[in-house]
């Protein structure tokens, strides 16, 4: 899951990046409005954490740039501005949530998960497929009510596929989800993770689309 943090306070940005990376996010940080617009043009993010007071333009100008491009990427405004008028302005400009500094990092993660669920059209906080349950809040996977031990990379591969159920996911897209776009990955690495997931969660869970990628198999009716 890739997140863009737009924050001009270098220490706060570093703390956010460190905390969110421990939670499985791939985090890019930019410190001004111009850098934010460039990053949003060149990359696809699952969510944006946006400060309002920025050099080279305001956070609202970044939000306006995003929405006038019809980009639905979820945006959480994170700012010290706590007036009701500021909240209304931010939400009316297209933000999905508004968080006032200082805030608890666990609350931020919960809000990120909530906006992602809404963006994906989900209501329940967990993902299910047959007897497999994924709880992103705990990074926990269960099969038949029993916890399944996955490596970090296996978990990220599974989550990327489950979040895109009904679609084929290319190897490049999976590599980007697992490693954040690193190019120094062996060509068969994703295939190894898929093999391990099949071994742990069932051979029929993931279908290979030859020459293209992988997809979660359709659930069979009982």
UniProtKB/TrEMBL annotation:
Residues 124-218 form the OmpR/PhoB-type domain. Residues 2-116 form the Response regulatory domain. GO terms for biological process: regulation of DNA-templated transcription. Residues 124-218 bind DNA. Keywords: Cytoplasm, DNA-binding, Phosphoprotein, Transcription, Transcription regulation, Two-component regulatory system. InterPro entries: CheY-like_superfamily, OmpR/PhoB-type_DNA-bd, Sig_transdc_resp-reg_receiver, WalR-like, WH-like_DNA-bd_sf. GO terms for cellular component: cytosol; protein-DNA complex. It is found in: Cytoplasm. Its main location: cytoplasm. This is DNA-binding response regulator. It comes from Caldimonas caldifontis.
């Amino acid at each position: 899951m890739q997140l863009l943090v737009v924050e001009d306070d270098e220490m706060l940005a570093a703390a956010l990046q460190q905390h969110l990376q421990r939670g499985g996010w791939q985090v890019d940080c930019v410190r001004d409005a111009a850098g934010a617009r460039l990053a949003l043009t060149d990359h696809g993010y699952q969510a944006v954490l946006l400060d309002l007071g920025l050099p080279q333009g305001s956070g609202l100008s970044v939000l306006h740039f995003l929405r006038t491009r019809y980009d639905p990427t979820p945006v959480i405004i994170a700012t010290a501005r706590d007036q009701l008028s500021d909240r209304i302005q931010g939400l009316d400009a297209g933000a999905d949530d508004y968080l006032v500094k200082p805030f608890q990092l666990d609350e931020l993660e919960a809000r990120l998960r909530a906006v992602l669920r809404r963006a994906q059209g989900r209501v329940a906080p967990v993902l299910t497929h047959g007897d497999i349950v994924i709880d992103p809040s705990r990074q926990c996977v269960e099969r038949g009510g029993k916890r399944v031990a996955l490596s970090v990379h296996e978990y990220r591969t599974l989550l990327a596929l489950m979040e895109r159920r009904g679609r084929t996911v290319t190897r490049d897209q999976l590599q980007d989800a697992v490693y954040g776009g690193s190019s120094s990955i062996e060509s068969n690495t994703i295939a190894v993770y898929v093999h391990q997931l099949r071994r742990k969660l069932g051979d029929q869970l993931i279908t290979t689309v030859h020459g293209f990628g992988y997809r979660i198999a359709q659930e069979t009716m009982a």
